[in-house]
Amino acid sequence: MAAALACALLLTSCSTNEPQASATDDGIKLVTYADMTKDYVDSQADYLLPAAATYPDISTFNLYSDGTFQDGFGEGRAVYIWNCAWASEYLKQEDKSSESALHALEVYASMEKMDPYINDWDDQSMKIPFVAMVESARLGDSSGIQRDTDINCPGGDPRR
C-alpha cells in the first residue's frame, strides 16, 4: 500500500511540465513565463511611449520560456523600454531647448516618481546617476543620457 501511494504521489507531482508560481525561501514571489508576459503586456498601458515608438514582442528578449521569473519582471521590461524610448526621443531632438525636447526630457525625468524607480532601483548605482544625468541635461549637457542610452538601450543612440 505504501509503495502504491508513493508511486501515485510521484506520478501526480510530475504530471505537468508547466512551471508553477511559487515563492523563494526569502518570500520573493515567482511567476510563470505566461504570467510574466501578461504583466509585460498589461504594463504597457501604464508606460506610454513616444508616438513613433513601439514595444517589442517579449520574445525579442530571449527569455527562458520554461522558467520562472520574479514577480514584477514583466513590468520591469516595460519600464526598461519606456525609459530607453523617452531618452531616445530627447536625444534625437537637434534643439535640446525646443518644446518637444523639453517635453521628452520631463517625461523621462518622471521616472523618479514611478514605483519601479522608488522600490527597485539601487540608490548608488541607479538613482544618483539618473538624477545627475537629468540635471545635467536640464543645464544643457546631454552626454550622460547619451552614454546611458548607448550602453543600455536597444539600438543605442538614435542619431547614429
Strand content: 5-15%
Q: What class do helices, strands and sheet pairing give?
A: mainly alpha
**Total individual domains:** 1
Find the count of extended strands (DSSP E, 2+ residues): 3
Work out the helicity level: 40-55%
Spatial strand order of the main sheet: 1-2-3
Number of helices: 7
Give me the Rg, rounded: 21 Å
Low-confidence stretches: 1-17
Helix and strand run? HEEHEHHHHH
What average pLDDT do the residues reach? Answer: 84
The 3D shape can be described as: globular
Measured distance between first and last alpha carbons: 71 Å
Largest sheet: 3 strands, antiparallel
Account of the protein in words:
There is one protein chain. The chain is mostly helical and 160 residues long. It has one domain (18-152). 53% of the residues lie in helices and 6% in strands. It is built from 7 helices and 3 strands; from the N terminus they run αββαβααααα. Strands 1-2-3 form a 3-stranded antiparallel beta sheet. A hairpin with a 5-residue loop joins β1 and β2. α3 (73-91) runs antiparallel to α4. The model is unreliable at 1-17 (pLDDT under 50).
